[in-house]
Write a structure and sequence with these properties.
Layout (H helix, E strand, L loop, with lengths): L1 E9 L2 H8 L9 E4 L6 E4 L1 H5 L12 H6 L3 E3 L3 H16 L5 E5 L2 E8 L5 H16 L3 E6 L2 H13 L6 E3 L3 H9 L10 H10 L5 H5 L3 H19 L17 E11 L2 H21 L2 E12 L9 E12 L2 H15 L6 E13 L10 H21 L38
The protein binds magnesium ion.
Length: about 425
């Protein structure tokens, strides 16, 4: 039985998600925009061919968009997040060794039978994942995470690979590393790339064959690890249970500038609710609550930004309690006479929710609040977000982030599912 590490990366993930429920987009130029419909953050191959670059503001490329009938979407994170979970579920069909690395990438620990090549196995995974989720992926397979990343990147530039490259063979490694610019190696980046270029190292192969002591001296332990990994010696094992996040933030830029505290209150209440829901799903309670507000620092308006942090006597995961804290916090930092662009809620010092200490006062009340939250979560899960909500939470205000071109939340909102006539 042979073993290897694969990286699976969804191709043009956000665009691919849009295409799952709207196959008419296949073969068309498609782009997805950042929050408030600002800049391009995902492009189809056809859009790339029109020279629509990543990060380009929509208004600057409006001519190209109109002339070529480019399909433009606001980002639909509910859809992308849900399809991302489906991808992960699909990966678990092949191996229990899954490390979710980002919204569209995961490392898999693979084992093959003696009569099966890694390439064939990779092609099988790619085909099944596409069949189950509708999202096309590409795979790089090798002895280490760093080499797998090199392999996956290589498939993007070489159509002949059909999206799967088995880079477990050493001779293959040498020729692929030769063709890979050193700054494209995982963990190198532009800063180290410059340093290495100064020493005459411009390809990944040169870095692999570089003097270990020199690398250790100039790029410390991070660099030494990269070199080992390029040599096929695994230094970065799969992390099956990534460490629980220590904090969570929910913040957005508003769709319009907001002047009055009533509107800010609505926004902060919505963010608080979202952050609290996320924490409960992860079974974590927060010991510290922080909120911040700021004006638009790119405008000529008078500027103001501020934040306030409350350390709670008892950690909590109750929306009801957190709403009371963030409301109080907002009252403290709000100043009239400014036009606010952004607000956010941060929950810190997260601890497992089932290990909360008994409260000296009000424990019964807290338990009641938690039972209420549990019921609310269940109803909202079944019937869609905000079916039941606190009165302070009023989604749909003017302040809401602009997303005029968002597709339907096909998989998470009952009244937005696809209907077949
Ligand atoms: Mg991707």
């Amino acid at each position: 039985m042979a073993q290897a590490i694969a990286i699976v990366n969804a191709n043009e993930f956000y665009v691919s998600c849009e295409r799952v429920f709207d196959p008419g987009l296949l073969g068309r130029p498609v782009v997805v925009l950042s929050n408030n419909d600002g800049c391009i953050i995902s492009r189809s191959r056809e859009a790339r061919a029109l020279n629509l670059t990543m990060g380009a503001p929509l208004f600057k490329v409006q001519d190209i968009v109109e002339a070529n009938d480019v399909a433009v979407f606001s980002s639909n994170y509910q859809l992308y997040g849900d399809l991302s979970l489906r991808l992960v579920e699909a990966f678990y069909e092949f191996t229990p060794d899954v490390e979710v690395y980002s919204i569209d990438e995961a490392f898999l620990g693979l084992e093959t039978h003696p009569d099966q090549s890694f390439r064939d196995y990779g092609l099988e995974i790619k085909a099944k994942v596409y069949q189950w989720t509708g999202v096309p992926c590409s795979l790089g397979i090798s002895q280490t995470k760093t080499l797998s990343k090199v392999a996956q990147r290589f498939t993007k530039k070489h159509a002949a690979a059909q999206g799967v490259l088995d880079l477990t063979d050493q001779a293959d490694q040498t020729s692929v590393l030769e063709e890979t610019p050193v700054e494209d190696v995982w963990g190198v980046g532009p800063a180290y790339g410059k340093l290495l270029a100064g020493a005459g190292i411009t390809t990944a192969r040169q870095l692999r064959d570089a003097d270990r002591r020199w690398v250790r001296r100039r790029m410390i332990v991070v660099g030494a690890r990269i070199v080992e990994e390029l040599r096929g010696i695994s230094c970065l094992p799969l992390e099956r249970c990534p460490q629980a996040r220590k904090s969570v933030t929910c913040s957005r830029s508003f769709g319009v500038l907001v002047e009055f505290i009533e509107e800010l209150r609505e926004a902060v209440a919505v963010y608080t609710t979202k952050a609290a829901e996320r924490r409960r799903r992860a079974r974590l309670a927060a010991g510290v609550v922080r909120i911040f507000v700021s004006t638009n620092r790119f405008s000529a308006d008078p500027q103001y930004s501020n934040s306030v942090t409350f350390e709670l006597a008892y950690a909590t995961d109750s929306t009801e309690e957190l709403l009371a804290w963030t409301r109080k916090a907002l009252e403290r930092i709000y100043r009239p006479g400014y036009r606010y662009k952004k607000a956010g809620v941060m929950l810190n010092h997260l601890t497992p929710a089932d290990e909360l200490t008994t409260r000296l006062f009000g424990d019964e009340r807290f338990e009641r609040s938690r039972r209420l939250m549990k019921a609310v979560d269940e109803i909202n899960r079944k019937f869609g977000r905000d079916t039941v909500r606190f009165d302070a939470v009023r989604p749909g205000g003017r302040w809401e982030t602009k997303c005029l071109r968002r597709s339907r939340r096909y998989t998470t909102c009952l009244n937005e599912v696809l209907r077949i006539a």
